[in-house]
Automatic annotation (TrEMBL):
It comes from the Bacteria. PROSITE patterns: GNAT. GO terms for molecular function: acyltransferase activity, transferring groups other than amino-acyl groups. Residues 281-426 form the N-acetyltransferase domain. This is N-acetyltransferase domain-containing protein.
């Protein structure tokens, strides 16, 4: 499955948009580790000569016409301040502090896009007095000259273009190296973009500088956070910096700020239609009424008698189960109608474990002859998820199911007094 990512980057634009796209792709990979996702990064805004599947755009310069010309299955647009009206089928991500969510627009701290490394515990201790200057990937020579003439002590600078004879400077760092430098520093001097969010996620004292208009909203929201001082104007920067440093040293170290905690669930739901059978909805996408309909099917007498757990499931247990589903547990409600409306005819599931999947099926007992069709739909989804072997456990007395699976070329892998474990290679 191809993922095409469009963004500008470089000396003029910095690396913020590129890093956000890279990080968003890493989240997709982490959510669906078995799917062979192939990234293609584009710095020019012209359509490639092949069908598009998943498209991600993070740009302040792309014209509206480019968005409207895109035909793809999923379109994700990153935008900090709703620059243009986007196509109706697009999902808009505003991954900045203080941004609001509305309809197909998702914003705020829960959708901040961090490299997954920044969501893990620190691996190195903080060096008291160390200051890290990380202003992003654009050229900032004049500003960095002011900072290096003002700062003293254990100072480290990240910038792809700047060199200092006084302090260590770094460029082309891997995310793990940036994370280590942040973790080892007591104070971070950063701009109002991705570097600010990285420092917040690691629980650091911060001086944040407003370097571009698009950072104003995020910095305004961050202004009230503990142990974070914001400089909105670079006039008299030396005095402001000296005062801010003396104040920060007297403040306590803040706790790491939780960021991006809603992002993975959103991405999961966005990609589910590409992996789901055409006449099925994942449990997480069902309405409250449809979830109750699934529960009614599960508690049918004949379904319970042929289940490994024959007990009646309560409403609370059912909704708790749906809420507990992980990204590797795919439970679908199958509809008679291809538009996924009307009555639910069956439930099918795949629980992924590497290249294997445990399968389950139960149906609305008033429908006949749907089992084989559901099976083939599950096979197709399993292949999309890079599953090579399907396994199912069947009670010995469930003769109808045993006949269906044997007809579908499942073989018996093992058995006990009550059940058979059968498998099929795809």
């Amino acid at each position: 499955m191809r993922v095409d990512l469009f963004c500008e980057s470089g000396e003029r634009y910095g690396l913020g948009h590129l890093r956000r796209c890279e990080n968003l792709f890493l989240h997709l990979k982490a959510i669906f580790p078995t799917i062979p996702l192939t990234p293609s990064f584009h710095s020019s805004f012209s359509l490639p000569p092949y069908p598009l599947e998943i498209v991600i755009i993070d740009s302040y310069i792309t014209p509206k016409e480019f968005y409207e010309s895109i035909e793809c299955q999923i379109l994700i647009c990153l935008d900090d301040f709703f620059r243009i009206p986007y196509p109706k089928h697009a999902t808009i991500l505003s991954p900045t502090l203080g941004a609001k969510s509305h309809k197909n627009r998702y914003g705020g701290e829960g959708y901040v896009i961090l490299n997954p490394l920044f969501l893990t515990p620190p691996k190195v201790p903080t060096q008291k007095g160390r200051i890290l200057v990380n202003l992003g990937g654009s050229r900032q020579d004049r500003l960095l000259d002011i900072l290096t003439s003002t700062l003293k002590g254990d100072i480290h600078i990240i910038n792809p273009y700047y060199k200092s004879s006084k302090f260590p400077t770094y460029s082309s760092l891997a995310p793990s190296e940036i994370c280590t430098l942040i973790d080892s520093s007591e104070i971070i001097i950063t701009a109002g973009g991705g570097g600010l969010n990285e420092a917040l996620s690691r629980g650091k004292k911060i001086i944040a500088l407003l370097l571009a208009d698009n950072q104003l909203s995020q910095l305004t929201h961050a202004h009230s956070l503990p142990s974070l001082l914001t400089i909105f104007s670079l006039k008299n920067l030396t005095c402001k910096l000296t005062h801010s440093l003396s104040l920060l040293y007297s403040l306590p170290t803040p706790s790491p700020k939780a960021l991006g905690y809603r992002l993975d669930k959103l991405l999961y739901k966005l990609l589910l239609p590409l992996l789901s059978p055409s006449n099925a909805l994942h449990f997480s996408l069902l309405s409250h009424t449809q979830k109750l309909e699934v529960l009614k099917l599960r508690n049918q007498k004949e379904v319970r008698e042929n289940s490994l757990n024959p007990k009646i499931i309560s409403t609370k247990e059912h909704f708790d189960f749906i809420a507990s589903l992980t990204f590797s547990q795919f439970f679908w409600a199958f509809f008679e109608d291809e538009r996924c409306c009307g009555e639910i005819v069956a439930v099918g599931s795949l629980q992924i474990e590497g290249e294997r999947a445990k399968m389950g099926i139960y149906k609305n007992m008033k429908y006949k002859g749907v089992g084989e069709k559901i099976l083939h739909s599950l096979y197709e989804s399993a292949k999309k998820l890079s599953v090579s072997t399907i396994e199912i456990e069947v009670l010995r007395h469930n003769s109808k199911a045993l006949h269906l699976y044997k007809k579908s070329r499942f073989s018996t892998k093992s058995q006990n007094e009550k059940s058979l474990i059968m498998e099929k290679n795809l």
